[in-house]
Amino acid sequence: MTRKQKRLTVILGALTFLGVATGLTFYALGQRTSFFYMPEDLQTAAVPAGQRIRLGGLVESGTVLRGQGTDVAFSVTDGTESVKVVYAGILPDLFREEQGVVTEGAFREDGTFVADSVLAKHDENYMPKEVAEGLKAKGVWQEEQ
Q: Given CA atoms 89, 93, 99, 102 in this order, what sign does their dihedral have?
């Protein structure tokens, strides 16, 4: 093999390695994608049971039920529709009724959303961006001045 052939072989090997690494990275990122939905969006979307999504809205007033240990059930609403959520874990300190929340998890076959993480607003001037935009579009929530 000449020097030129050796150099070309090394360059082609490096490009092949980079291509495979890039492809695997995009594949892995695509598997972790979770889509954001508001409760009303779920009426038209065909979300199969077990598919990971993020569900956002306001914690519906009067729906927070604490069970044994760290089990909690509540409903997330956007003003028109509600989705029942169950969560086993410690809720954020600022979690309360009529406050913005984003949950991540999947639906069971019975239509109940099983959350594995719950995010609540961190002070009175913040609401998760996706939730705020969705609620503003529906006219349910206005930013306080």
A: negative
pLDDT digit string (tens) for 13-69? 999 999 999 988 888 776 556 678 888 888 887 888 888 888 888 888 899 999 888
Do you know the residue count of the chain?
145
Q: What three-state secondary structure class fits 25?
A: helix
Q: What does DSSP say about strands 53-59 and 35-37: parallel, antiparallel, or unpaired?
A: parallel
**Cβ neighbour number for residue 94 with a 10 Å cutoff:** 15
Phi, psi of 46 (to 5 degrees): -100, 85
Which residue type, as a one-letter code, is found at position 109? E
Which residue is listed with tokens 């291509």? Answer: 19
* Rounded CA separation 81/18 (Å): 47
Distance of CA 138 to the CA centre of its chain: 20
- Number of C-beta neighbours around residue 30 at 10 A: 8
Locus of tokens 């705020």 = 132
Instruction: Give the end-to-end CA distance of the chain in Å, rounded to a whole number.
Output: 74
